[in-house]
Amino acid sequence: MGTGRVVLVVAAGRGERVGGDVPKQYRMLAGQPVLRRTLQALLQRFAPGEVRVVIDPAHRPLYEKTVCGLGLPEPLAGGPSRRESVRAGLEALAGDPPQDVWVHDAVRPFVSTALLDRLAEALATRAAVVPVVAVADSLVRRSDGAVERYVPRAGLARVQTPQAFRFDLLLRAHRTVPCGDFTDDGSMVWACGEEVATVEGEEENFKLTTPSDFARAERVLATRRTVRTGFGFDVHAFAGDRPLVLCGVGIPHQRGLAGHSDADVALHALTDAILATVAAGDIGVHFPPSDPRWRDADSAQFLRYALEMLALAGGRLEHLDLTLVCEEPQIAPHRDAMRQRLAELTGLPLARVSLKATTTEGLGFTGRREGMAAYALVTAGFAEGEPT
Predict the structure, then answer these.
(1) Contact (CB, 8 A) for 90 and 174
(2) What is the mean pLDDT of the chain?
(3) Domain limits at 10?
């Protein structure tokens, strides 16, 4: 038996009860796929190399997009049922088995580090541990739409994941326990005659199964929402031999702006402002002017890249405010088209796109008509506190 642990995240299901065009583990929740939120929660305590996701191979494109940037190992192929998926994951690890294996539902995105700590502490002295939440409501058994009998709730609890086991114990349970009405791995270990210890679970660690669960999850995330602002600034000199592009819109003018890319001073400032919300440096770090790939490039791709980085960190752009500083050209005739293009590029409603222009009353390089400057201020919302 090896050392260490592996956390199997079961993400091969279709999630048909919740509806929608994609399996529920890939459904968006406050701007991010559920599976990504679950993985980010686990990665608060576990190293990326300890987390193995079990997926339906047919979902591979969805999976790759979902886990981009998390540094996880290759996913494992699952089966048509939850039990078969866990079994497949265990068998894939059996050649070089860890000492411990944890199993977690992909659609429980609110698992806390405190719960993970309780499980780890209990597993140090036990071979199987599951989190449970005591039943608070009265319980009945129904028949034909009526109460058949009341069930005493004393001692009853609801079982959650993640569940933690000695690897050899859980593998033996999966290999030997006949197929039956087993809805979690702890019940299979218990069916082998082994003791299954419990720790206190958490009400917030609920499983997303129905549309109402997703609505509840959105409410939970709303209570955790934080806001960050980002500031960007850029300057470009005028050049007479190229078109002028501002906010992704071609502007009729006798001079364009000098730069390695299309020199869209507005989009450059906006890109820097968005990168600032996740402390990711500036546009030059990601698209250096020394790289020939960006010669005459459309600056919209820089903006899209910054928005992707924001999304990967769990953020969503909420508002932008751009100020252009120039004596020429006049911005007012093009303002509506520029705002519309900014809304298209960022996905923001037009009412959250602010664009202004001013002059320096003839002072400085802009006053001398030598170039243009742009200031950008953005607001980004993060559903789970600090960006990761």
Answers:
(1) yes
(2) 93
(3) 5-222
